[in-house]
């Protein structure tokens, strides 16, 4: 009987410890899970709208991330970075703009998947469904002033992100799939100008 009480005590302590985990600590676990892999690829749908004009656009895309490097394929453009250089390739215009990766902000919502931003305050909001957690990230002065994440509690994978921008635009990203540790070509995160001879290169560095 005494052993049963000890076992029950440990179970209660474990459940209390889990219940006391803050939203920030939970987000760190999600980020650590992603960063534990050599790389990962996500496919997603996203919708951008404006609460004033009620105009919205829907698109699908794919993103591959590995450390500081990433490749985003969305609509008719590709955004590629090896961590130092940023290439924005406009496919239909046959044009690529080259810049420094540290100067860009377009990819910020994707890069936030693997970065813990201390400028945001975090709290749990109403749970969406069993096995899911919702975390609200607030930074009233930031470009992305409010981000609401729906996360699979067991897999530690983000399933949906609602992003409210200072401009009044709203973006909803729904992640459809994750794949981890893919074998990638050594030049996967580099735009190869030799393979795109008809593309105009605009160096903005």
Q: What labels describe this entry?
A:
205 residues, alpha+beta, twelve-stranded mixed sheet, 17% helix, 44% strand, globular, disordered N terminus
Task: Write up this protein.
16% of the residues are buried. A twelve-stranded mixed sheet has the order 7-8-9-10-11-1-2-3-4-5-6-12. It is globular. Strand 2 and strand 3 form a beta hairpin. The N terminus is likely disordered. The protein is an alpha+beta fold and 205 residues long.
Question: How would you concisely characterize the structure shown here?
Answer:
The chain has 205 residues and is α+β, with helices and mostly antiparallel strands. 17% of the residues lie in helices and 44% in strands.
Q: How many β strands by DSSP?
A: 12
**Biggest beta-sheet profile:** 12 strands, mixed
Give the helices and strands as they follow along the chain: HHEEEEEEHEEEEEE
Low-confidence stretches: 1-18
**First CA to last CA: what distance?**
72 Å
Supply the helix-strand structural class: alpha+beta
The gross shape turns out to be globular
Q: Helicity, in percent?
A: 10-25%
Mean pLDDT: 83
- How many helices? The count is 3
Radius of gyration: 20 Å
Widest beta sheet: strand line-up: 7-8-9-10-11-1-2-3-4-5-6-12
Strand content: 35-45%
